[in-house]
Design goal:
This protein has about 200 residues and is an all-alpha fold. It has one domain. The chain is built from seven helices and two strands. The protein has a two-stranded antiparallel ribbon with strand order 1-2. Strand 1 and strand 2 form a beta hairpin. The protein starts with a helix and ends with a helix.
Length: about 200
């Protein structure tokens, strides 16, 4: 390999990444969910110790980062205002306390995450699905070539929100399904987030 080739590869590695912050946070959340889902299988078999408080706290902190940095919440996209920053700080504080001092906020965070996931999924299916579907069925001329990509995006978002509702239900009703099913739901949720980022990159 000559010097110019090595220099070119080095520039690719060290040059500024073109990945938007919003996509980076989604990838981080997807990675967390996939790793968590994989680890839950040996946890359910009793092969690994597990801290539910750490899991819930970390999920809440990541949601707080999205709120503070992007105004993005499980219930939808909002303006990045001071109220969103303050709510994000509150959520992050609860998540950090849950990770450090187990048992104090377990049920509060569990039900909060459950309600947020169910609410976000229901809101999208109730208000976002039909308008997007109609727009795909009757696209403007300049977007006709992009219709297949938008169809994939709508399908991915729909499945993702259904899975989020299922995850929220397991948070509100612990013990309703087996831990192995929850593991599968968490992994699917993470994979769908990766797929969504890939599709959004093609749309943007």
């Amino acid at each position: 390999m000559n010097a110019s080739s090595r220099l070119s590869k080095r520039n690719i590695i060290f040059r500024e990444a073109s990945l938007p912050l919003s996509f980076a946070i989604i990838i981080l959340l997807g990675l967390l969910l996939v790793v968590l889902g994989i680890l839950l299988f040996p946890v359910n078999l009793g092969l690994l110790p597990f801290s539910p408080d750490g899991q819930l706290g970390l999920l809440l902190v990541l949601n707080a980062l999205q709120m503070m940095a992007l105004g993005n919440t499980p219930l939808g996209q909002f303006k990045r205002s001071w109220i969103m920053v303050l709510i994000g700080i509150g959520f992050a504080s609860m998540g950090i306390i849950s990770c450090i001092v187990p048992g104090i906020l377990t049920f509060i965070i569990q039900y909060l995450l459950g309600l947020l996931n169910i609410g976000g999924g229901v809101i999208f299916l109730a208000t976002g699905f039909l308008p997007t579907y109609r727009a795909i069925q009757n696209p403007p001329p300049e977007l006709i070539s992009s219709v297949p990509v938008y169809k994939k995006m709508l399908t991915t978002q729909t499945v993702l929100n259904i899975v989020s509702i299922m995850f929220g239900i397991t948070m509100l009703l612990p013990g309703l399904v087996s831990g192995f099913i929850i593991s599968g739901i968490v992994i699917i949720n993470g994979i769908l987030l990766f797929m969504l980022v890939r599709i959004l990159q093609r749309v943007s």
